[in-house]
Design brief:
There is one protein chain. The chain is mainly α. The chain has one domain. The chain is 75% helix and 0% strand. It has helices at residues 7-16, 22-53, 59-87, 93-113, 117-137. Helix 2 (22-53) runs antiparallel to helix 5 (117-137), helix 3 packs antiparallel against helix 4 and helix 4 (93-113) packs antiparallel against helix 5 (117-137). The longest helix is centred in the N-terminal third of the chain and has 32 residues, at 22-53. It starts with 6 loop residues before the first helix and ends in a 13-residue tail after the last helix. This is Integral membrane protein. Keywords: Membrane, Transmembrane, Transmembrane helix. The chain crosses the membrane at residues 28-53, 65-86, 93-111, 117-136.
Length: 150
């Protein structure tokens, strides 16, 4: 099976000595996996919060574990976003999405710990919407960035 290389890929191959695109695909799959799990965890967080508000008080502990797990996932998302951008020469938006969600997650954690429900609930809804939208668009992560495009 022989595949024709573009001029850019030929130049990349001459510089680095390896076939371009493989790292991009690997990082794109890793990023997609992380972001799919983030979307699922965020949706589960809403279920756990609803259970807690309905009187299942043990759900609050699981809600806290979910917050910690989403922190870890988003940190991994930032690392993979950096690798995707600079090692894989991919787009920059996945990195900014992961950083933005990580920062929002920290604000969310502080609002939850401080019992600021008027901030915690709407921010949680917004984070779920962003995570689901990213999960729906994440298949575009594996495209190379062109010129100044992000």
């Amino acid at each position: 099976m022989h595949t024709e290389l573009t001029d850019e890929e030929t130049a990349d191959l001459a510089e680095g000595g390896r076939r371009p695109g493989r790292g991009l695909r690997v990082y794109a799959w890793l990023y997609a996996g992380v972001m799919y799990v983030v979307a699922v965890v965020y949706c589960l967080q809403a279920v756990l919060a609803g259970q807690f508000l309905s009187g299942v008080y043990g759900a609050l502990s699981w809600h806290q574990y979910g917050a910690t797990f989403s922190d870890v996932l988003l940190f991994c998302g930032v690392v993979v976003g950096v690798l995707l951008r600079w090692r894989g020469r991919g787009r920059v938006w996945p990195l900014w999405v992961a950083v933005g969600l990580l920062v929002a997650n920290q604000v969310q954690n502080a609002a939850g710990a401080g019992r600021l429900v008027s901030l915690h609930v709407p921010l949680g809804v917004a984070m779920i919407v962003v995570a689901v939208l990213v999960a729906l668009r994440v298949h575009r992560v594996g495209q190379r960035s062109g010129g100044g495009e992000g």
